[in-house]
Amino acid sequence: MAGPSPLDAAGFTQPSTVSWSQGAWQVVGEDSQALMVLLNNGEEVMCEPGGMLHSAPGLKPEADMGGIGMGFQRCCCAGESCIRVHYMNQTGQPQSVSITPSFPAKVVPIDMSKYSGLIIKKQSFTASIGREVEIGIQCVPSWGVGCCAEQGCCMSTLNGTGTAFLNAGGAVFMKNLAAGEQVHCDSSSVVAVEKTVTWDIIRTGDCLFMMCGGMGCFNTLLTGPGLVILQSMSIERTIKGFMAHAQSG
Fold first, then answer.
1. Cα–Cα distance between 226 and 221 in angstroms, integer?
2. Which whole number is the average pLDDT over 200-216?
3. How many CB atoms lie within 10 A of CB 34?
4. Do 105 and 30 form a contact (C-beta atoms < 8 A)?
5. Which neighbouring-strand residues pair with 246?
6. Per-residue DSSP letters for the chain?
7. Over the stretch 124-176, which tens digit does the pLDDT of each residue have?
8. Exposed/middle/buried for 21, CB within 10 Å: 0-12, 13-18, 19+?
9. Measured between alpha carbons, how far is 185 from 231 in angstroms, rounded to an integer?
């Protein structure tokens, strides 16, 4: 008898490979994606430095720090760039710009108006449309998360009501956790969680598993309620795989 798929049974969903918002923006590509945005007069897109793939001649590029203090906090404490890049349309005609992640990845659109704010993995921000999305930082909830969950002392945050775009490697999994619902995951696989989600660590297993199981000593423990976004092939896992292949000859 046919039943739910393993993905459905686990409660996860996957964003469509190619997304289109009926004119404003479009995610194109399959495994290595790009974001294309059509800007009307006075509209702008914000992205990370070096993220522009193409820009129409009528777009004006600008760079700022979002305040010197906040820029240095992002750079020194959260592992992000201190600079934010903007492309603004100052012409009377729609103009296009395309943005790419810093490594081969999928682009994940997020409607920020649906959530109470997100905590995102460092360098997972790709772009946002307009100035309705604010990038900030916050301290990790515990030293255990900072030291054992690969997050460092501070994590980046997203707040606002606009549309933000994150990057994620491999397959992307999304789940809205119910209150008290938990999910154990590889620490590098976490792309973003809603601010209502509790972030903690848990031992991967017994002593033999911790030494020989290939998952390290701790996994990340996420407790709902709220949105969780995971990736199957983080940049850390990709680099580790390439290094292991190179060392094996």
1. 13
2. 80
3. 17
4. no
5. none
6. -----HHHHTT-B---SS-B-TTSEEEE-SSS-EEEEEE-TT-EEEE-TT-EEEE-TTEEEEEE-SSHHHHHHHHHHSS--S-EEEEEE-SSS-EEEEE--SSS-EEEEEEGGGSS-EEE-TT-EEEEETT-EEEEEEE-S-HHHHHHSS--SEEEEEEESSEEEEEE-SSEEEEEEPTT-EEEE-GGGEEEEETTSEEEEEE-SSHHHHHHSSS-SEEEEEESSEEEEEESS-HHHHHHHHHHHHHT-
7. 999 999 888 888 888 777 776 766 666 667 788 999 888 999 999 999 999 99
8. middle
9. 10
Among positive and negative, which fits the CA dihedral 195, 46, 108, 92? positive
Q: For residue 66, give both structure tokens.
A: 């979002």
- Picking from 56, 41, 130, the residue whose alpha carbon sits closest to that of residue 93 is 41
Chain-centroid distance of CA 87 in Å reads 21
Name the residue among 162, 156, 152, 33 with its Cα closest to residue 101.
33
Instruction: Categorize the per-residue pLDDT at 123 as very low, low, confident or very high, splitting at 50, 70 and 90.
Output: confident
- For 62, other C-beta atoms within 10 Å of its C-beta total 11
Give the residue among 43, 27, 47, 183 at the shortest CA–CA distance from 107.
Answer: 27
The 10s digit of each residue's pLDDT in 32-77 is 899 999 999 999 999 988 999 999 988 999 988 776 766 666 666 5
pTM for this prediction = 0.86
Q: What does the DSSP assignment read for 146-166?
A: HHHSS--SEEEEEEESSEEEE
Query: What phi and psi, each to the nearest 5 degrees, are found at residue 128?
Result: -150, 155
Q: Among all chains, which residue has been given the structure tokens 């995102």?
A: 120
